[in-house]
Amino acid sequence: MASRLSQVSGHISNAHSRGLLAGEVAIITGAGQGIGRSIALLFAKEGAKIVASDIDEKRLAAVLEEIKAAGGDAIGVAGDVGADDFPKKIVDATIQKYGKINHIINNAGFTFDKMLHTTPDETFDIIIKIHVRAPFRLIRQAAPYFRLKPEARENRSIVNVSSTSGLHGNVGQANYAAAKAAVIGLTKTIAKEWGPFGVRANTVAFGLIHTRLTAAKEAGATIEIGGKKVALGVPGAKGPQPTPDADAYPFIPLRRGGNADEAAASVLFLASPLASYVSGHTLEVTGGAGI
Fold first, then answer.
1. Which GO terms describe its biological process (predicted)?
2. Looking at the whole model, is its pTM more than 0.85?
3. Does the residue 164 lie in any domain?
């Protein structure tokens, strides 16, 4: 037992000295801004080669410039994660450039909030398509690079992004809550099917993280879907507070919302050797909300 512990400890120590993800390759969707951008920058800092994707080419290009300016290695694959050809396009680009895939971080997504009784089919369907179908299709496309013989195995993982809406439901988010609950079931299935190949699969369920999706709707952030602009955000939402505010966030024990860098750190933990025996888990990153 002592020998085994020393081997694990040594592996983590060596990985940390070179970067927790040194030499590994990570596909990160929705990497143009918010949490996805922070994940891409943090993973690159920890030595990973980044394959970043976003539907916004300009934002994606800016993130790639940041990574390269800091000495990182990255390529971009712009596009809609829900497009039929997207999984093949990004997997082929990854293998052509780097020859392998270690991690897939399914982060891309948005909200399209409506009360359940006023939600049309297309509003429900698009959220399911982006948050459940798209991650499933990307993971399936990458299967040959994860289901490997023992001698070819390295640290490999899938991290799917969920939400407390998927754990507890949320008013005005029947579509989003259903999708984010489905992501958890998908992840657990991957953990069981691919565990024998040494692949870990985990979910991170975010609470209030300050991004454009949780900012005040009055700020006017939008996303274009099928040629139509959809408003993002939460009506009357409060922004980041300079100090913990008991009045602003009474239901969060830490009395504040999280930021994108804190969210990214939790994803790094799940992908890194620090979580080498963690699989099938849903990590709640909520500041204590929901306990």
1. fatty acid biosynthetic process
2. yes
3. yes
Rounded to a whole number of angstroms, the CA Rg of the chain reads: 19
CA atoms of 100 and 89, how far apart (whole Å):
15
Amino acid at 226: G
- What residues contact residue 282 under an 8 Å CB cut-off, 6+ apart? 162, 167, 184, 187, 202, 203, 204, 205
C-alpha span between 131 and 253 (Å, rounded)? 28
Domain that holds residue 85: 20-149+156-213+257-285
Contacts (Cβ under 8 Å, ≥6 apart) of 119: 174, 175
pLDDT digits (tens, 9 = 90+) for 199-221: 999 999 999 999 866 654 556 66
Number of domains in the chain: 1
Residues labelled catalytic: 176
Residue 112 domain-assigned (yes or no)? yes
Asked, for residue 135, whether it belongs to a domain, the answer is: yes
Q: Write the CATH number for 109.
A: 3.40.50.720
